[in-house]
Design a protein that fits this description.
With about 475 residues, the protein is of the alpha+beta class. The chain folds into three domains: about 1-95 and about 455-465, Uridine Diphospho-n-acetylenolpyruvylglucosamine Reductase, domain 2; about 95-210, Uridine Diphospho-n-acetylenolpyruvylglucosamine Reductase, domain 3 (2-Layer Sandwich), CATH 3.30.465.10; about 215-420, Vanillyl-alcohol Oxidase, Chain A, domain 3. It is about 30% helix and about 25% strand. The chain has helices at about 30-35, 55-70, 115-125, 140-145, 155-160, 185-190, 225-240, 280-285, 300-305, 305-320, 335-345, 350-355, 400-415, 430-440, 445-455, and strands spanning about 1-5, 20-25, 50, 70-75, 90-95, 100-105, 110, 130, 165-170, 175-180, 200-210, 210, 215-225, 245-255, 260-270, 295-300, 330-335, 360-365, 380-390, 420. The strands form four sheets. It has an eight-stranded antiparallel beta sheet. The longest helix has 20 residues, at about 400-415. It is globular and about 70 Å long. Bound molecules: flavin-adenine dinucleotide (FAD). Flavin-adenine dinucleotide binds next to strand 4, helix 4 and strand 11.
Length: about 475
């Protein structure tokens, strides 16, 4: 059922009828879709789903939630894995209609927070411009990745996606529509970027753009072990040799089709135009890869940034895309990353990762990340260390979910003790004391910003950052 009011429904008193330009749906199928996400583990049924026509609609709904003691959260593309955009008995704001895009300067683009990175790219490429950092998967929403940080293959050079945002329009937890930037309302700007939806719902973002590369020369290098994969990434970072850098550890299929040996691989890309082809010998000089296995491919920049689509096609075809995804993502301190990762992987059995599961192990410079709420290990270099898990297709028994969630928790304790930090898109039960440990010295400021911008604690309850009552 579609309605234009936050109305007397399910026992809500009459005075809660609020006029909206957009729609609210109370239909069971719409609410059920908003009670699920890419993780398919947590399910929390909202009261209704708002499809806002304006920031004002979101402000009205936020004020209503704050006044009635309910929760409210934005939902971009629903790719979080642990119920982070879900709201039990509250309002989910479907941001997909908030997707307008327009140029606001030579190197600036203003986008609705519900736009996907794929549509951003489609809008900028005709002008030979691109955002400095793109996620692997282009069908994530701008608001969804800015709420967590946004890592990509160029993060080692340009930081997180939140580092190249110059202005945001936000609806705060008090239902105020506020524009913020490093100059205007800087406290809100610094809180909302990677702020896990705790301080405001982003309605619009102005992004900085850089000149678009034309071509991508991709070097896929094999390594006999984790140590050499890590060492070469440190070397490449030190010389700033790669434009795109992504390490991966996968499980090879054994002779009987059973997956079983770890395979270590580095994908390094140099952008160029054809007049300026990289010298392969110079690019590969001094690297310790198994050179006979090196693959070099030249492709358009677009083919490069869309490469992940081929992987998603594969896992869609096997049914793994629709199965539960208990993804676990962290950053390890660079100086000890190989030891920590090796010890952690000793606990992971092939079936815990899944047939097409993989481990991401990529180096970045922590100094390139300037967003205050993005937590990084206390080291010059950090490695992303992510378990991209795919449950077996078909009905998944609770035993798998329970076991893998337990493993996520125990691996996290191990990584935390070794100086690593969580990337908060992980499938992991986190309570306020865990968030306090995560934010460490920033925790008092996080609490203070919460009281200031969301005093009723109505925004994005799915992170369980603050448990009221
Ligand atoms: C296949 C796949 C590939 C991925 N690749 C990458 C990657 O390369 N790099 C990376 O960094 N991450 C990656 N992720 C993780 C992803 O960035 C996060 O899960 C992201 O939050 C999902 O975006 P979404 O639009 O689906 O957001 P949703 O799942 O809809 O929302 C995620 C969280 O953000 C909040 N949120 C959404 N929109 C807004 C808004 N407008 N204002 C405030 N809060 C908002 C929600 O309330 C929720 O808490 C990947 C995830 C998947 C499933």
């Amino acid at each position: 059922m579609i309605d234009r009011t936050m109305r007397a429904s399910r026992g809500l008193p009459r005075r809660e009828v609020l006029p909206l330009d957009g729609d609210v749906s109370f239909a069971d199928d719409v609410r059920a879709a908003a009670a699920d996400d890419f993780g398919h583990v947590i399910r929390r049924m909202p009261l209704g789903v708002l499809r806002p026509a304006s920031a004002r609609d979101i402000a009205v709904a936020v004020r209503w939630a704050a006044d009635t003691g309910r929760g409210i959260a934005a939902r971009g593309q629903g790719h979080s894995t642990f119920g982070r955009s879900q709201v039990d008995g509250g309002v989910v704001v479907d941001m997909t209609g908030f997707d307008e895009i327009h140029r606001t300067g030579d190197d600036r683009l203003t986008v609705g927070a519900g736009a996907t990175w794929r549509s951003v790219l489609a809008a900028t490429l005709p002008d030979q411009l691109v955002p400095p950092v793109l996620p692997n998967f282009l069908d994530l929403s701008v608001g969804g990745t800015l709420a967590v940080g946004g890592v990509g293959g160029t993060t080692h050079r340009y930081g997180m996606q939140t580092d190249s945002v110059c202005e945001l329009e936000v609806v705060t937890g008090e239902g105020r529509i506020v524009t913020c930037s490093p100059r205007d309302n800087p406290e809100l700007f610094h809180s909302v970027r990677a702020g896990l939806g705790q301080f405001g719902i982003i309605t619009r973002a102005t992004l900085t753009l850089i000149p678009a590369p034309t071509r991508a020369r991709r070097y896929t290098l094999a390594y006999p072990d984790l140590g050499r994969l890590a060492a070469d990434q440190r070397l490449l970072l030190g010389e700033d040799r790669a434009d795109h850098l992504q390490g991966a550890i996968t499980l090879d299929a054994g002779p009987d089709g059973d997956a079983r040996a770890w395979r270590h691989q580095l994908e390094m890309v140099l952008f160029h135009d054809l007049a300026d082809l990289p010298d392969d010998d110079a690019v590969l000089a001094g690297l310790a890869d198994e050179r006979a296995q090196a693959q070099i491919e030249d492709m358009s920049y677009v083919d490069h940034v869309e490469a992940f689509d081929r992987f998603t096609e594969l896992v869609r075809s096997t049914g793994e895309w629709a199965a539960p995804h208990l993804w676990w993502l962290t950053f390890l301190p660079g100086s000890a990353a190989d030891d920590i990762a090796r010890a952690a992987l000793a606990e992971v059995a092939p079936e815990d990762l899944g047939t097409h599961g993989m481990v991401v192990f990529s180096a970045l410079r922590t100094s390139r990340i300037t967003t205050p709420l993005v937590r990084m290990p206390d080291d010059d270099i950090a490695f992303t260390f992510n378990l991209i898990r795919f449950a077996p297709p078909g009905p998944v028994v609770g035993e798998y979910v329970d076991r893998v969630l337990e493993q996520n928790a125990s691996l996290y304790r191990r990584v935390l003790a070794a100086g690593g930090v969580l990337y908060p898109v992980s499938a992991l039960s986190f309570r306020p004391q865990d968030w306090a440990e995560h934010f460490r010295d920033l925790w008092p400021a996080v609490r203070e910003a919460k009281e200031r911008f969301d005093p009723a604690h109505c925004l994005t309850p799915g992170y369980e950052l603050i448990v009221s009552g």
